[in-house]
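REQUEST ID: PR-0412
SUBMITTED BY: lab tech R.K.
PRIORITY: routine
TASK: structure prediction, single protein chain
INPUT:
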Amino acid sequence: MTQDVLLALGFLMLASAAPAAKTGGDYFTAEHVAAIRARAKQPEYARTLEQTIAKAELIAGRSDEEIWEMIPDADLPRALNVCFGVGCPVHGTEIFRKGGNYPWIMSPDQPFKVKCPVGGEVYPSNDFATYLKAGRKEKLDTTVEYVDDGGGWVDADGKRYWFVAHYMFWEHWRHTIIDGISACYRAWLATGDERYAHKTGVALARISQVYPHMKYADQAYHNGRYPAGINGRILDYIWENSTVTTFGLAYDAIFPTLAADESLKSFAASRGVGDVAAAIEKDILQVAVQDIFEKKIWGNKFELGSLSTLALCINNTDPSRGATTAQMVDWILTGPGDLEFTLYNGIDRDGIGGESSPAYSSIWNTRLVQAADNLARLGVDIVNDPRWLRIARGPSEMRILDSLCPRIGDHGGGILGSPRLAQADLFEFGVQHFKDPYSAKMLLKMNRTPDLFARAIPDRDELRKLAKRDRFADAPFTRDMGGYGLAILELDDGLHKRSATMYYGCPGASHGHLDRLTMAYHLDGRDVLTELGYPAHWGPMADWWVKNTPSHYCVMIDGRAQPARTAGYLTAFADLNGLKFAEAEAAAMWKGAAKDYRRALALLDTGEKSALLIDAFAVEGGSMHDYIFHGLPYGEFAPDLRRVRAQKTGTLAGEDVAFGADPGEGRAAAGYQYFRSPSWYKPQDVTRLSWRGDNGLDMDAWFPRLAFDEVIVADTQPPVTGAYPDTMPYILLRRSGQDLSSLFLGIVETGDVPSGVAKVTRLTASHPKAGGAVVRLTSGAEWRILVNLSGEDVTFEDGARSSARFAALLTSGGKLRKAHLIGAGRVEQPGFQALTCEPAPEWTVSSVDYRAGTARIARPDGRVRIPKNGLVVVARNGGHSASYTLRSAKAVEGGEVEISFGDTPLLTGRFQASWDAASGKIISKERTGGVYNQFVAKRFPGMTAVSGNLAHTATITAYDGAANTFSIDPARGPSFGNGNGDGRSYVYIADIAPGVSLSPTPARTISPRAAF
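STATUS: complete
OUTPUT:
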């Protein structure tokens, strides 16, 4: 039976399993409610119950009349910000440094007042609560200091401050009303006290009167715009998903009480709501469903979770009452909800959602899991694909040193790092559906009190038994996430655990930065080479600075930011004892402006309880290269250089360009207007930069002058929040000329003990993409670092010759003590014997079992050695390249070896498509690009088309995004038709296929016991 047929069975299940019209709780069934009330009596849930009841009093503590009055008319403005990018009338942007992105202090004890966290001033000056209760009939003068009639106060400069509307958005609607309703229905579920159900019903009845008339686009101030111009109802179109989910769950929870609550019926009728249940469904839930259908409420895949919840809570089979549950399910699965599409084309093979930011991507995972659970209760089991296990595990596997999450794109946290992603709902899903040991172990590590309101609580004894089988390595764990585009290098030098990462580009581009090949460095639970992460506010500073290339560890070409977010790819990877190495390239991103754009990153254990981060960046093309670097964020910076000149006015964008200003002439996107007070220094043969005293850490960075002509140091401003310093120095190493080919080399040491490095000297080479350094340790030992990214045999100035990609040679007492070699080649060092690294085997794939995740390769001796933590290989087919990790290998018949990729799926995409004989192309019925699609940043040519029955493959030779067509060998075209005649034929996309070559990186460590 083909996968096409298997998938179709899922839709048939809906017709046979569709529930009858709503007669009781469908999300909160009687059995579920009984379990909640039993748990609520147990001591471990006492605190949760106490907090729920306390929060519920925001609603339950009021009379019915007070609840009705507290829910305002639809036209009262809501404001995400008080004054976007400006802050406080008195303290300006300092308020963000004190309190973060949304700094104002608010409390229901001071209705419609906002308090500045810096000076404690309270705004507005008038009593808006009394004004609102009186019907807002009086005309208020909003030019009087801090008077706000709901539409904001305008200062003398014309800036409008939305004090009341900000309170209305955050404290009144989001926290008091929405969170209050959530706590109130939960208190009913936990206690059975009908007072909570009654008050929830009153609140929902009143909301049913105003909800259809709420239009965020017309009624809200959002990120500097009024009217907001973006969809939503009470809140904006993304956060409104949580709002309608809360209302749906509240309705389902209290539904069994509505028919018998005569007091509610009478009170609601007196206020114009004749049938409470019908009003909630028609004027709240069905309005929300239509908004989701029309994508007026959506974003970050929240809509999959919210609509599947509403489908279960409404449980409608009558089209005259609005959208039916069956229609909602169809919208989710095969309609604009794109769940099936997303499973293959939005989630990468590592299980990461289609956004660059780990935090935003993980939202996809949680909402997909939420949708899968809800759909299962509606009779539609979609968890019939191993990709779901990757969804459960992917976000947390991205962790650094077991504690941190890489701060890529718009990821939150502080300048010193962000904690790893650990989401219990994903792990519970992994345990429930796959009996996954990793998920069980992560649940135990979280050591959290289970959710009082969960449908089921995992048995801890069973989790312990399952967790014992987990094989995911503890830190340090060097690995490659080839689907997401992240190389992770980790080692323990005996004093510190260290990690370096290189982000070469995930397939998704949303919430991403222009940062391909950026690096980061981590030490014992904090970031030491840092990313700015999430912008403090959206706007020019976010676009031109925080999200832009110059704020990252990248190279600018001709003063230009990276022009695209095209994914790069791994070209080399090695995990040796004492050396961790990764190389990746991303020249295609430059759209012809760069012939080469490649970074090699290494972590080297010096053998003396310290480590060196070695960074080599090769760039070819253009007439100006700027290598950009910044160090410890709180360290005292000291350049060991002679200053040539200092610019007294303006920024690096020009003496007449103020900080943050638009330089004009198309130069705004460069971001140089955020480098203020630039100073030029005379470069030395080895430029040394130092940072001292950052929470006990010091850092030294040495840059041998292989390419750059100028050293520029400028002051910059990180996002203005409490987690960042006021300013940070950035360094630009600049080279100018014609048709440049440059190699930038950096060596970084950081730690909490005096430096183990006594001196660094440079080694020039006979090729512009080669060079090195001699690092003398305080012990007298020396590490010779030879970098050769030319692919040729080169000579270094000390007489050494190397054709290897990278070499690190340790000498002391006139003897060679250790050597690490990366890349096939020969290294000759004067006075020492020659060293060689033999070429690695290149295997050709003969067959693939896409269901099993295995492939076969020819190997006459029947052996392929796979290290404990896997073997990273680069898969190549023509100009296409991708990296995968082999997990196991075994000899099979025919002189072949079967290799396994573990639980990594080998099918990386899928489209409803088939061969069209008339055009001679595969034509897709679905979009092949566009928003939230991992192929936005990929290139199809060189990838493989796989037929729907997984029996036939063909290399994609061309792709037309506008027409959604793929070109393949016409002789193979007929194999890509609708094999079972059901009108739904699929074509899968893969990197691994027959004929594709797989090659590990040649690498070896030569120890003292070798013949020296």
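NOTES: Residues 163-191 form the longest helix (29 residues).
REVIEWED BY: pending
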